[in-house]
Amino acid sequence: MMDGGLTTAGAAADLALRVARIARFDAFERLRADWRSLEARDPEGTVFLSWDWLAQGFRANPGRWMVLAIFAGETLVATLPLRARVRWSGSRAEFQTELAAGGLFLWSEYTGFLCDPDWEETAMAVFAEALQDLPWYDLTLRYEASQRRAALFMRAFPEDAFRVGFRDYMINRGQTDNLLCPYVDLPDDYETWLSNGPGKNTRQKIRRFTRRYLDSGDLRFEVSSGPQLKRDLADMLRLWMRKWAPVKGADTARQVAGNYMKIVATADRLGLLYMPVLREGDRVIGALGHILDPQHKRVHFILAGRDETVEGNHVGLLMHSQSIRWAISQGYRVYDFCHGNEPYKYSFGATDRQAKYFTVRRRGAARHAMLDPLNRTEALARVLSFMEEGRREEAALGCRQVLRQMRDEA
User: How far is CA 233 from the centre of its chain?
Assistant: First the structure.
């Protein structure tokens, strides 16, 4: 079923809940008002789970996503946005659907569930029950940021039919835990934060660098906007590439830079981009990209570009401290450094939030259809690519699988 209700059992049936699967943009669009109402009720939601944010990815990727939505009567109480894509299993010689976070289309910082807290425990079980009857092989959610929803969700999959587990995610050759997300709680005024947030050494440096470079006029801290934004964004990515291409390799760095462009462009379209730059004359020596979450009063730092030829350690301290000053002045309550426990983040008084990375995989896959009809077009495109690559046996097997599925539905 592409869009509509799913058969309910267990907790859903007992509480007269309705579970819908949404896989067309027009149906997703009809959820807009209800989704926004749910956003306002979920204290653990994020801008990356908002209707407006996800719509940017879903609109551009028809046939590659779905949303499970739970209703209590006419009230939307929980949603789970997912990406659905095809993989070819060489061992089983078949196409399989892989599910992951829907926010991956936009390289979102956080993923997971949107949920009314009054329905949290029930909704996680209902999502798991509904998914068990859908065709897919494995499901992965990385950067799920709630306090306990992942555990409730995973607990609802029976062990005899599914393998579930949490994963670590270390980067930078094992030096950085990318599931730790440092953040700073913001007070009502900047001086209170500066006096109580950073350590003594950092606080003294911020005050000294502010006087020396900003108060003197040697450097300018500005918020980029309008026609200048495009030029400043190009400068920021150029500085980022200059630092990271030798570390990550040029091809990988270009791919990551492209992902950053995607998330920054999305934020800009939605009016959620905050991009300050530090200038020496007309030259950009530092820039930061942030995503704003006005609903939850959070500022998410996602990207930095810094001129490494500038001597001294004032650029980063000035950029983040002045961004925190701006966030406080605008009424934001959290400055989020997002993924990674790099030491410099804690110098601003940050504490950790733990994001989750978990997988659910079927056991005994032969007893259950693995290819979602949603992915049929993508599977046929893979058949064509097999033919072009001379992989005629895989092409024939894949074509038979799709035809068999279509005959079974007739």
Answer: 21
Residue in this structure with the two tokens 């660098």, named with its chain if needed: 209
Bridge-partner residues for 115, per DSSP? 78
The CA–CA distances, whole Å, from 103 to 47, 58, 371, 393 equal 11, 9, 21, 35
Question: pTM for the complete prediction?
Answer: 0.93
- Give the model confidence (pLDDT) of 282-335 as tens digits: 999 999 999 999 999 999 999 999 999 999 889 999 999 999 999 999 999 999
Count of alpha carbons within 13 Å of 312, Cβ hemisphere only?
Answer: 13
For residue range 239-274, list pLDDT tens digits in order: 999 999 998 899 999 999 999 998 999 999 999 999
Q: Write the pLDDT tens digit of every residue in 195-215.
A: 999 999 999 999 999 999 999
250 by Cβ neighbours in 10 Å (0-12 / 13-18 / 19+) ranks as exposed
DSSP state, residue 1: -
Q: What is the pLDDT of residue 1?
A: 38
By the 10 Å C-beta count (0-12 exposed, 13-18 middle, 19+ buried), 95 is classed as buried
Burial 61-84 (b: 16+ CB within 10 A, else e): beebbbbbbbbbeeebbbbbbbbb
Measured CA angle at 246 (ends 260, 175), to 5 deg: 75
Residue linked to tokens 């350690």? 313
Q: Which residues, including other chains, have CB under 8 Å from residue 157's CB and lie 6 or more apart?
A: 128, 132, 164, 360
The candidate with the shortest Cα–Cα distance to 113, out of 354, 105, 103, is: 103
Q: Tell me the angle at which helices 376-388 and 392-409 cross, rounded to the nearest 10 degrees.
A: 160
Q: Could you give the residue ranges of the DSSP H alpha helices within 108-249?
A: 120-132, 149-155, 190-196, 200-209, 227-248
Torsion from C-alpha of 194, 196, 199, 205, nearest 10 degrees? 20
Residue 14 has pLDDT above 60, yes or no: no
Half-sphere exposure of 199 (CA within 13 A, CB side): 9
Decide if 42 contacts 117 (C-beta within 8 A).
Answer: yes
